[in-house]
Amino acid sequence: MSATTGRGPYAKSAEVRRRILEACVDAFGETGFHGATMKDIAKRAGISHTGLLHHFARKEDLLIAVLELCAERSVDFLKSTDAIDPAEHPVEALRGMLAVIVGSELQPGIMELNAVLSGEATSPEHPAHMYFGQRYRSVRHFYTDAFTALAARGELRSTLTPEALATTTLALINGLQVQWLFDRDSIKVESAIRDFLVSLVPGLDR
What we know:
There is one protein chain. The protein is mostly helical. The chain has two domains: 1-57, Orthogonal Bundle (Arc Repressor Mutant, subunit A), CATH 1.10.10.60; 64-205, Tetracycline Repressor, domain 2 (Orthogonal Bundle). 73% of the residues lie in helices and 0% in strands. It has nine helices and no strands.
């Protein structure tokens, strides 16, 4: 049977890979990259250690695959909300980024993963150091473009520069996500971010 039917060895391999990556999200989120072991990940995924090595020979390969998966989910959310170009569609871009945060990042496993790995990755020797550095630069650039476009239209309510607002917005989001991990009943990440953005861009609430 061909792989295009969605069945057979190809589909089975894809399913195993999905289980492995889900197990990695949980393992890395709980103990970090250095604390997780390949044997533990294999056990969580319900496969043998040898089976895991067949798909991913090194733990670094697993880390890269998990980070790529998270990035792909974020891009898919942005595409679904037509918010890829913040310079041309700044309001839609901000709405789209909020959808990304709520839909693909505000999940217990992903939240722990981001919090633990981003903390570990501050070390230049960490395999995810370059990834998180580039990620923060890209997100700041995204918000800077959106705020710059809004300022040019007279639709931005702030005395800060677009660059400063972008940095502040990213700091707010990261801080709220970490607080949420400690107090999930009291911290309302989505509403807090939305209220902050609406205070800057009243048109966002329309």
